[in-house]
Structures are given as structure tokens and as C-alpha cells.
Amino acid sequence: MAQCGNHMVVDDVWFEHEDAEYRDLLGAFDLYLVGLHAPLDIVQQRELARGDREIGLAKGQIDRVHRDRNYDLQIETAHKSPEQVAREICTAFDL
Description:
Blueprint: H1 19-25, E1 34-37, H2 40-50, H3 57-61, E2 73-76, H4 82-92
């Protein structure tokens, strides 16, 4: 998709240095890592609302997912809509 000129958004949870695979695959393109943050209670509410998540997964990941991560942008999402977050990302990277 990227080779055809498409902008891509990949939503993934990484532990340790798993982002290296994305860097290798997409190294020829502009790649921005964005950390999305919210307090545990908000994350748990979202987990329930989505209806397609294993309940408790967010609680198990919250302390690990952002550890030792170097992001190009970090956004607090607790009181923002997905559209607001998307606009913030586009503005930050002039997309």
C-alpha cells in the first residue's frame, strides 16, 4: 500500500524492540511512531465499549506498552475523539 503512494496508519501494540520490523519494512517511506496515552480507567472503558477485546488485556499491557519507547509524537487521548487525535497527528507531521 505504501509503495502505491498511500498514507498508512498501523495500530499495533509493541513490546521490547518489535518496532524494528516496521522500520525495516517501511524504511524507504516517512515513518512516524505515535504514542497514544490515556489513564487506565479510560482505557478499560474503551476496551469494554469496543466489544471485540479480551477484557483485562489493557490492564496487563498499560505498564509495558510505552516502556523504553522513542516516539515522534505522544498524545494524551483521554478527552479527545478519534477525529481530534487524527487531526493532531496530521498537523504535527504536515500531512
